[in-house]
Amino acid sequence: LAQLTTAQFQAFTTDQMPSLTTLQVANLTTGQVATLQSADVAVLTGNQIGAFTSAQLPSMTTANMAAMTTTQVNGLTDTQMPKLSTAQLQALGDDVTGLSTAAIAAIGTSLAPSLTTLQVAALTSDQVPAIATASFASMTTDQLVKFTTDQVPTLTTAQIVALTTGQASALLNTQVEKLTTEQVTAMQAADFGKLSTGAIVSLTTAQATNLTTAQVQAISATQLVKLQTEDLAALGSDRIAALTAIQVPLLTTDQIVALGTAQIASITTAQVANMTADQLKAVELSDLAQFSTAQISALTSAQMSELTTAQLGKLDSTQIKAIEATEFG
To answer: How far apart are CA 184 and CA 14, in angstroms?
Structure first.
């Protein structure tokens, strides 16, 4: 076949093209491949498509790529994928759903950002987790926000770890809400700290329960005040104790009220010393009764002066003894 002229090769009909063996396909010249008509390509089998060599494939026109059916696209191999140009990949349209998971995994960092947003949204639940972590990290934010709420839970924890801070900040509220608890826990603290305030609001209590101490400490000032009271109440005592000296004074009074007895008891003396007057007044009487003597001792004179009479009346004898003598002055 390689000896045939262009005119001779083009004389083959669409009825004849499917009869070419994979060996014959692999031996076509790049010039012959370039002269293939879309109608010819459309009748090739998946095995024939997979027989095109890495040297031949770049010669295929975008019109020919667009002529492929989903079944034919399934014939593309993992060795062929890296050889596709941006234009060729995009020409496949939503037929990318036909790509095998091996072919998806072979899409490299130079090609992954070329997927159209429509192609990203069309990927199947088997294809999404097959995207290599490096390729996933190379995707643009425009692509990332096109992952549907059905696709998001299929992302692997390795892909979540691979997120860049730029990608994390672009995640939509609806996408964050669909993350599994394992995915949320896997997110790097720096990335979690870049989530939008809307995404923080959309966190479920199940997700909040599984936040790591590093993630809690990475929560920014603008994020913290948006954390829903039920989500804060879902944090383990160790996570509450992990709040930094900068974060503690930022808690709203509603958030303070939402804290459970065990969480109140977990507040460190350093945190107590950083609580504002409004926060202290917001501590419920039953919670104040759980303050340890160390926590009481950590209160400054200014803080003691802001306690309500009702709160002071709830202190027991042990707590009263823990009050620094200078604070009575």
So the answer is: 52
